[in-house]
Fold this sequence. Notes:
Number of strands: 41
Oligomer: single chain
Largest sheet: 5 strands, mixed
Structural class: mainly beta
Radius of gyration: 24 Å
Strand content: 25-35%
Helix content: 10-25%
CATH superfamily of the domain at 43-121 and 156-161 and 448-464 and 590-713: Quinoprotein alcohol dehydrogenase-like superfamily
Amino acid sequence: MQAxxxxxxxxxxxxxxxxxxxxxxxxxxxxxxxSALRGAPGEDTDWASYHGNPGGDHFSxxxxxxxxxxxxxxxxxxxxTGEGGLQTTPLAIGGTLYAMTPEQEVLAIxxxxxxxxxxxxxxDANKQPVRGLSFWTDGKExxxxxxxxxxxxxxxxxxxxxIDSFGDHGRIDMRQGLGRPAEAIALALTTPATIWGDLxxxxxxxxxxxxxxxxxxxxxxxxxxxxxxxxxxxxxxxxPGHETWPxxxxxxxxxxxxxxxxxxxxxxxxxxxxxxxxVDDFYGxxxxxxNLYANSLVALDARTGRLLWHHQLVHHDIQDRDxxxxxxxxxxxxxxxPVEAVAxxxxxxxxxxxxxxxxxxxxxxDEVPIPASIVPGEHSAPTQPMPRLPAPYARQRLTPDLLTNxxxxxxxxxxxxxxxxxxxxxxxxxxxxxxxxxxxxxxxGAEWGGQAIARGKGILYINANDVxxxxxxxxxxxxxxxxxxxxxxxxxxxxxxxxxxxxxxxLTDVFSRRLEGDVASTILHGQGRMPAFSNLAPQMTxxxxxxRNGDQPQRGEMQAIGSGSxxxxxxxxxxxxxxxxxxxxxxxxxxxxxxxxIDMNTGQYLWHIPFGEYPALKASGMATTGSExxxxxxxxxxxxxxxxxxxxxxxxxxxxxxSGKVLWQTTLPQAGTATxxxxxxxxxxxxxxxxxxxxxxxxxxxxxxxxxxxxxx
Length: 713
């Protein structure tokens, strides 16, 4: 009975499903009002939520920095945090920043000076990126919630000390309660908990291949750590959506997890959660059906976890087209009336806009026929939902006329390579033995940094990647070490172990470069973009033998595990590959990255510009190529948009939000691959961004936080 993108009569069906929401709304308002006591974060001066506020709109009401004076911004302080990957957007509460290091240490920082007030090392920390933290107060108690590795920690914001009464002596093991043995589950909390009332609502990242954790969304009591409710994104028998999977899939299927984060309408108590792909990402022969609630935007009663409405954005996903960022709450003018809406961006370059209460699409959605899979055992969805407005913010189909013309040689090479690829739009299925173009690429379109709005105007700002990748399938191996590698490692490092540097390093001859213990530690604990695979400990000997010897006989004596590979998977993904020219630049024509302003009242673009540069190409006269970018924008009430994100030019830019004109920019020590934030401390407005060169292997390693402010008078 839930709203679905392929249903007709959206409004009437969705309204019928929401009978009784009024009572929930009244209770939600009461709960929120009850928590808004003295000691709560200052809305006008702080950055108290991951994306600025519970609605996730990346908007700050601060106005000290304006279009007229932004050109005077100067460095205020810098805090270096070592080598690794850093993607954290700090919180700012009463002049104190709460942030992370690449080693998952928690920092409290004097927001005016940049000095460390306290530092907390978390037990069992790893090197997974932590993109944000959560803060809760009822006016008396205060808690800092930190997801790190497989644990959700509760810390005292004043000292960093664990709060012993929360969970198991200050933390919760998120592997517990998922209906699978904890030791068989690999997951990580890269996105912070969403706070509503006295609940911390949590999703997680899990493996991209079998076995993977089932993506339950869970709410915990922020004081005790007790589990308050669970929403099963892979429905159990008797739950709506169970019929869209094989009957027993709920026992073994994985994914459909909320890894990108959630937002909440605090007044109504409605939680909005985008969900990830079902596992395996690229072959769904063992999960026939639409696979609800994977690849969906689900609206839940934040108090109980009850499903209010949903829309599946991709049916039976076999291209890893899950929504990459939290949705955004905004108000738009629709049919002459203000409508409180929710917007969801996608990797494949389109924006969906819904009435946040009813789930009604505010722009028509068509079910568009797509190419059918020819892979044995696979039954792809016949159609996919595509909104009529706004137009896609990334190109949708790669054709010969869109190949690079950077040089005649680069064009000739791209044309030759393209002739051997399948290219049939954003939902072209993978093939066995022939690579398929994925355009926009696996990293979007939109990415995890999220979007910003001009509050009160209905304008949404989005940065996007616009480069092509390729991928293919291959028969799965029956050898134990090879099967373990294929299931867990090949997607990133390739079936041939050559990777796709610099994003995914080669593993050929890895033991000539790294000690075996270091390799094993990285596999078990994760590092940077690579998740932790603690569940592989029992299979480590076979995997290490395979990394050492390749397809040569292993100590495992070529043991067969299941039919083909783990969980009977017949085909595996051969690896992510960017479509590049011989010089390492995208083999498609620019722009390779864009920044757009979209009027969500009408669905029309106000401006759409190339975003980012390659310094070497700029020096040769190609200054408007755009580049890949990771991390989102923020906006201020004074009409500014701040964004870093571009991985090669290391710029932090301030745009006029109305025109898209650059008003100020500065070169950061490393790329600003995180969403910035802004706050007041000591009477000054600061803009802070995390920096890291983890995505640019040609630049010196390093991470840190850079702060900017107007000069003191």
